[in-house]
Structure formats: structure tokens, C-alpha cells
User: Fold this.
Amino acid sequence: MSDPVLLPLLGGPPPERRDAARNREALLVAAQELVDSCGVDHVTMEAVAARAGVGKGTVFRRFESREGLMAALLDRSETVWQAAVISGPPPLGPGADPMERLLAFGRSRLTTTMRHAELIRAAGRAGSRSYAAWSFTAMHVRYLLGELHVAGDLPILATALLAPLEVPVLEQQLSVEAFPLERVAAGWEDLARRVVRPPGA
Amino acid sequence: MSDPVLLPLLGGPPPERRDAARNREALLVAAQELVDSCGVDHVTMEAVAARAGVGKGTVFRRFESREGLMAALLDRSETVWQAAVISGPPPLGPGADPMERLLAFGRSRLTTTMRHAELIRAAGRAGSRSYAAWSFTAMHVRYLLGELHVAGDLPILATALLAPLEVPVLEQQLSVEAFPLERVAAGWEDLARRVVRPPGA
Assistant:
């Protein structure tokens, strides 16, 4: 689609800000490509600058540090995932029945979190446990438990379903205990069914 | 009781080692008293040395750093708690029925973890998520689930019961969401009952 709008939309960012956002996005795309092809550990500020065709100083001006860049990558990936939950195809997105959505949520969150684990580590303090990310998942699970007519303290039950999907708990299971991913995913589904089924079921 | 043993017991530590252990314990007792009376933040190597009546150098020699001291305090407190689970009075210790023990475990672990949270933070890297502590609780919960004849992947279900008792998840609920402790404890009991009850119950 072409963009015939010459003046900024009411409430939209001014053109200079939009340029800055576009440049920032280009740097994040370059960084994400490097992560995908070489792994988080190989992504340096220099490599991102080279790939995006800008000076190293530009990357530092936008993100301050490698930690800041990693935090921005994490934020971007989390946003993409949340968009899939809110408006992507079922069963993760709307349209499937709530139990199917809950099971799809667990599986998708598990793999997303493991993909994010390295970024979280690389982001250091900047990537420490994000309240915004937790809050989104908590609201979503609470909503699905409500749709499933689960009786009980839904915020606490939502927390109980999310806690096993936290990075240190997943790493304990996948890396330390060396359980296969499929076993951990199936275990979460079993937990979700136990939490959801009515007492007399 | 007097101690008539003049020679070290077979397999016991030599006297010099025993003295070292006693001195170490005296320093840890002094540090724990300071924690109890002033809070973790006020416990310095100097204050511990002064209270135990030794030089600051002695405290540094034993624990290397304040982080090391905090890790040792954490370790000691965890050991005391584990002893209560293994051989303390019921319902946390043996003697109660397994469901009572499981509920007592959850409540006790919740308060112990919150009491430990500050020590864990103060211990920095030295106090990072302890595999030994996790492993003990995982084995205990798995054992109780077995006694309760729960059908399923018990190591995974045990993990699901332990994950909501991890420090960041508890702090999320108690500090960020500001849920009362009693609500979080009751929510864990509800979770435990949902996990334990048979599908047809």
C-alpha cells in the first residue's frame, strides 16, 4: 500500500520521530537476523552496525549498550507473540474453544520463553523479569479460566499455571533434569486439565 | 552431656577441623542474631566480627565476602528447615497423613522462602537458585504425591507445585499484586488439592 498522508495523523508521531522509529526498527531487524543466524552470543554492537550499514555510534546512541539492545529485541519479540495471542490464528488466537486456546497458550509460551531465555540473560538487569510480560500472560490465562467457568481464585490459579513456564523452572526441567521438551509440554497440559476440571468431573 | 571422646571418632573430623566448624557456627549464630534483630541490610562483616568477639579478618577468612556469609546463612537455615521436614513434628514432619503433610509443606515452604528471599538477594551469585534446595523439595513432593497414589508424571507435577513457591513468583503476588499472605497460601492449597484429586473424584 502507498502512503498518501503527507501530514502526520492526529495523535501520530511527527515525521522526525517516525524516521527515528524506522531506523530503530531497521537496527532491531539486523540484530534479530544476527541472533537467528549466529546466536545471541555472537551479536555485538559492531556486527549490528555493519549489517545495518550505520556507524557503531548510531547503535550505541539508540540502545546505550549491548544489554539495552538485547532488552529491545526481547521487547519486540514479546510484542509479536502477544499480537499472535490477541489477534493471530486459532488455536492460540481467538476462534478456538477456551480449553484449546489454553493448551495452545501453554505450548506456545513454553517455546517462546525458551527462545527468549538467552536474550533475557544477555539483557542483564535491563531484561530482568518483566512485569508487563507477566501481566499480559496473567490476564490472558485468567480470562480463559473465566471462559472455562473455573470456580476458584482465578488470579492465583493463573499464577500457578504460569509459574512452571518461568525461565529458571523451565531450565531446571530441560537442562538440569534433561527432560525432553515434549514431556515438559505434555506435563503442563496435564496440569492445565487438573486445574480446569470441575471437582466432580 | 559431657564429651568423653578424646580421640576423634572413626570417620569424624579431626579436632582441629571440629574447632574450625565450631568457630564457623559461632560466627553464623552471631550473623543470624544480627539478621533477626536488625534485618539483612544491616549485617556487615564488621558487625558480625564485633558480635562474635573476633577480628574482621577472621570473618573474611571464613566466608570470603559478605555474599559468602549470606550464602552460608542461607545454607544453614535451609538445612534446619529440611531437618524439620525429615524428622520434625507432624504435620510437616513424618506421622501425619500425606495430604496433611503436603499442605503443611506448602505453607511452611512459602514462609521459609519469603524469609530467605532477602538472604538470597544479599548472597548475590553465591545464593543463586540452589539446585540442592530445589532437589530436596522436589523429591519430598514427589514422594508425597506417590503416597497419595496420584497418577501422572510425578516429577513434572511436583515441579508444578513448587514453581509458584519460587521467590520471584511469590514476590509478584505478595509485593507487586499485594495479595495477603493468607490468600496466596490458601491458593496453593487449592492448587495442591486440584493436582492430587483423582480424575473421577
